[in-house]
Amino acid sequence: MTVVLKVENLSKHFGGLRAVNGVTFDVARGELKALIGPNGAGKSTCFNMLMGQLKPSAGRVSLNGEDITGKPPRDIWRRGVGRTFQITGTYQSMTVAENVQMALISHHRKIFAIRPFAHKLYRDEALALLEIVGMADQADRACAILAYGDLKRLELAIALANNPTLLLMDEPTAGMAPKERERLMQLTADIVRDRNISVLFTEHDMDVVFAHAHHIMVLNRGELIADGTAAEVRNNAQVQEVYLGGGTLYAKEDAHA
Ligand SMILES: Nc1ncnc2c1ncn2[C@@H]1O[C@H](COP(=O)(O)OP(=O)(O)OP(=O)(O)O)[C@@H](O)[C@H]1O
C-alpha cells in the first residue's frame, strides 16, 4: 500500500473550541475514503486544513512524503491536490468545454499567455476529460443552462484537469436526486480505479458512503472515533451511539464489507 496522504495529530482550535482534535489517518493510492460525522463534527475544518485554507493549531500533513502543513492553497494544489466544493464554481458565461480548457490553461501555467486564443487551447484534452465524466456531448453548451447533476460532473472534469493524485470532495452529492447521486459516485469510483488516484470525500448520505467508500472514517466532536471498512464502522459501538443512540447505523449490504 502506497500512502499518498498522511495526517498526524492534526488539530484546529477556535478559542476554546476543539473543532479538530489530534486526528491521525492515512489515505492510500487508489483509495476512495469517506469522512463522515454529524453536523459540526469538524469535517470541513479538517478539509480546509488539508487544502491550506486554514492553518492547523498543531499536527502535520504530508503528501507523498513531503510536509505540506500550513502551505498556501495554491502550493498544495500545484502538488496535485484537487478539491470540489458543495457549491459549484464554474464560469456561467462560458461553455462546458471552455471551463475545462481554463482549468487546463491554469494547470499548464499559461493563464496570462495569448488570452485571445484561449478558446482554442487544450480543446482536445478538455474533450477527453469531458468524455470521462460523460459530458462530451454537451461540450459546447453554456454552463448557465446545465442541470445541477451535469454541473457536478463538469466540476469533476475541472478538478481532473489539474491531474490530481488526491481529490478532496466536499459533499459531492449534496442537493442531488438519489439517482443522480448514485451516478456521480459510481463515476467517481470508476475514476479512482481507472486513474489510480485517491479520493477523500465528506458525505451525509449514508447510502452513498456505504455503497462506494473503500474505507470510512467517523469524526465526532473533532475526534476520529473509527477508521475502517464499512462492516467495521457499522459494527462500532461508539459510531452507533453517535448516529442512532445505540441503533444500527446501516442495515443494507454494502459493496466493500
Ligand atoms: N472559523 C471558525 N470560527 C469558529 N468556529 C468555527 C469556525 N469554523 C468552524 N467552527 C466550528 O467548528 C466546529 C466544526 O465545524 P465544521 O464546519 O468543521 O463541521 P462539519 O463536520 O463540517 O459540519 P457540517 O456537516 O455541518 O458541514 C463547529 O462547532 C463550528 O461551529
TrEMBL record:
GO cellular component assignments: plasma membrane
Key word Nucleotide-binding present: yes
SMART domains, per database record: AAA
Domain ABC transporter as annotated: residue spans: 5-246
Pfam families reported in the protein's UniProt record: ABC_tran (PF00005), BCA_ABC_TP_C (PF12399)
PROSITE patterns xrefs: ABC_TRANSPORTER_1 (PS00211), ABC_TRANSPORTER_2 (PS50893)
The keyword rRNA-binding belongs to this UniProt entry's keyword annotation: no
InterPro entries referenced in this protein's UniProt entry, alphabetically: AAA+_ATPase (IPR003593), ABC_AA/LPS_Transport (IPR051120), ABC_transporter-like_ATP-bd (IPR003439), ABC_transporter-like_CS (IPR017871), BCA_ABC_TP_C (IPR032823), P-loop_NTPase (IPR027417)
Domain of life (superkingdom): Bacteria
GO biological processes: D-alanine transmembrane transport; L-alanine transport; L-isoleucine import across plasma membrane; L-valine import across plasma membrane
Keyword annotations: ATP-binding, Nucleotide-binding, Transport
CDD domains, sorted: ABC_Mj1267_LivG_branched
One function term, GO molecular function aspect: L-isoleucine transmembrane transporter activity
Name recorded for this polypeptide: ABC transporter ATP-binding protein
